[in-house]
Amino acid sequence: MSLIIQIENLSKSYWRDSMEIPVLHNLNLEVERGGFLSLMGPSGSGKTTLLNLIAGIDRPSSGKVIVNDSDISKMGESALAKWRAINIGFVFQFYNLIPVLTAYENVELPLILTKLSRKERKKHVETALSIVGLEDRMHHSPRQLSGGQEQRVAIARAIVADPLILVADEPTGDLDKNSADEILTLMKRLNSEFDKTIIIVTHDPHAARIAKIVHQLDKGELIIK
Amino acid sequence: MKIPIKYILRNFKSRKLTTMITVSGIALVVFVFAAVLMMAYGIQSTLIATGSIDNVKIVRKAANGEISSIIDGETQNVVRSLPHIAVTTEGKQIISNEPVVIINLDKPDGAMGNITVRGVSPLSNYLRPQLKIKEGRMFKFGVRELIVGSSISKRFVGAKIGDIVKFAGDDWKLVGIFSADGSGFESEILGDALQLLGAFNRGNTVSTITLKLDDAKNFDTFKRAFDADRRLQQFEVKTERDYFEEQSELMATFIRVLGIFVTVIFSFGATIGAMITMYSAVANRTVEVGTFRALGFSRRSILAAFLTESILISLFGGLLGILLASLLSFFSISTLNFGSFSELEFSFSTSPSIIISSLVFALTMGIIGGFLPAVRAARMNIVNALRAG
Fold first, then answer.
1. Taking a C-beta distance cutoff of 8 angstroms, is the pair B145, B217 a contact?
2. pLDDT tens, B160-209?
3. Which of A170, B64, B200, B290 has its CA at a distance of 20 to 30 angstroms from the CA of residue A214?
4. Contact A85/B292, CB-based, under 8 Å?
5. Which residue has the higher pLDDT, B13 or A142?
6. What are the chain B neighbours of A53 within 8 Å (beta carbons)?
């Protein structure tokens, strides 16, 4: 298996006023294509920061983040936005669906950035919604859906443009047990059937167990299990 | 812009109240702006319609208006010798030597207004065919009789048929009411020029001369002959339309400058209102901005989306303001014309350029009001924006 993510000597600090707050220290990590990695650790351990750096929505203080042979830490703002649109699917803890758009329109959003025609987009959206089992709710607005359904729509949005990597930050953190199980099963299926590389950040050991690899982060350092 | 327009439009629905308040604020300012321009344009249109392109007006140089112009009898005779003056079928030159005076009439609220009384010659109907007797009859020449413009008759006390108007120590009977296609003549009283000259002891000295050209194209030739005559050096000649257009310029400019000055001050308030609305929209949608950015939408797309939202608000406000202002065209008002120091009734008139100016004004408020909030949204740090939820 080839590597899809290579992280070399990655450090990240935040500045609050004039005080430097180190979050990640000299971290090295490799993820194989089609891998399923779970990042665990206490609050403030740096797991969400690491996820954000891999997803290209944050910048490292030093070190390299190489995804699919591209060093994203060197990309400009505009290039990085284009790169995210093609390579990354996001699943957030609170779903982050756009409340004024329907499920269909939310899922369609990443495709607006592609050159697909309206007809092709429709086909892709319907496929994505059928994978998450919500093709009958496509014209519902987020507020007409349950938490579990909203997260499934968010997953459909994350996969609709067929990205290489799915990143999920506490994807079951806001769900009841049944809904959480449905989401975890769905993610496992996306990894096994659709060969998506998935990285999830979670506090929940049950959620972490579905991953093939679990890494523990503590005080900005990686403890590989 | 990549962010779908339906996202912007549906956000209006989700915060109806703030959107409506902002739209109303902009509509109000645009209403005032458009109303001022319509007022100035209405005055100009009324006065321009008063003049005809084939009529020529002769006044004393540097006279501010007809009442301050004096033309003696000798000059009147010199003018008759100029070329291209139209003649009737009987061979009479179509010239009206006109004394113009101002009298006072009472308004229904007790206030007083200045009214122009114009003395005309028997051939003046060739000069102003638009004058039509609506009620009563034409005054008789050689008698102290007058006809009154419909606007004056409507707005002043004692200006009805049969009423007696007192001026120059004499009684003048109103025998008819006339219309003049909405032109400034409807704000005048007309009578026999000779009767007026006699009543005011003016001898044969009139205020202005109005004459008809045989062809409007011959104005330049007529003017050259006029300017070449040394006896006419103290006088100037213009087409009647140009003359009345110049008369309207002072007042229209005054209204425009004052009105636009006031409106621009109002517009600061409306722009700040739009800015507050857009800052609040950005603050309420911080997570959405973060989500759009995470999904791959560029900073430019975010900027364009919020700026479009602000522009649409201002466009709705602008259209509403123009719509409200256009209702004013059903009304006419009367005011003192600075050119003649007498009452002039006019309607609010609109034109394509007023509509375009008003829309540009509204959009400018939207762009200025929306720009900084849109920049803030576009420059948001994605991680911080996503955490705002």
1. no
2. 999 999 998 899 999 999 999 888 899 999 999 999 999 999 999 999 99
3. B290
4. no
5. A142
6. none
Residue B389 sits at the chain A interface (C-beta within 8 Å): yes
- Nearest chain B alpha carbon to A102: B7
CA of B366 vs chain A CAs: smallest distance (Å)? 23
* Partners of A223 in the β-ladder: A216
- Go through B351-368 and write b for each residue having 16 or more CB atoms within 10 A of its CB, e for each that does not: eeebbebbbebbbebbbb
Is the ipTM higher than 0.90? The answer is: yes
Q: Residues with Cβ < 8 Å from A16, sequence gap 6 or more?
A: none
Ranges assigned E (strand) in B69-169: 95-98, 100-106, 112-120, 132-136, 145-149, 164-167
Tell me the average pLDDT across B364-369.
95
Q: Which chain A residues are Cβ-neighbours of B294 within 8 angstroms?
A: 55, 57, 84, 90
Closest CA of chain B from A189, distance in Å: 22
Q: Pick left, alpha or beta for residue A98 (phi over 0 → left; psi -120 to 50 → alpha; otherwise beta).
A: beta
CATH number at residue A39: 3.40.50.300
Name the residue among B7, B13, B386 with its Cβ closest to that of A98: B7
Interfacial B residues in 299-328 facing A (CB < 8 Å): 299
Cβ proximity of A161 and A111 under 8 Å: yes
- Across the interface, whether the CB atoms of B7 and A96 are under 8 A apart is answered no
pLDDT band of B301, cuts 50, 70, 90: very high
Confidence bin at A104 (pLDDT 50/70/90): very high
Per the structure, the complete domain to which residue A129 belongs is given by: 3-224
Q: Give the number of domains in chain A.
A: 1
The residues near B91 (Cβ < 8 Å, ≥ 6 apart) are: none
CA distance B320 to chain A (A): 25
**Whole-number Å distance between alpha carbons of B113 and B108:** 11
| pTM > 0.90 | no
- Cβ contact, residue pair A113, B296, below 8 Å: yes
At residue A225, the pLDDT reads: 57
How big is chain A, counted in residues?
225
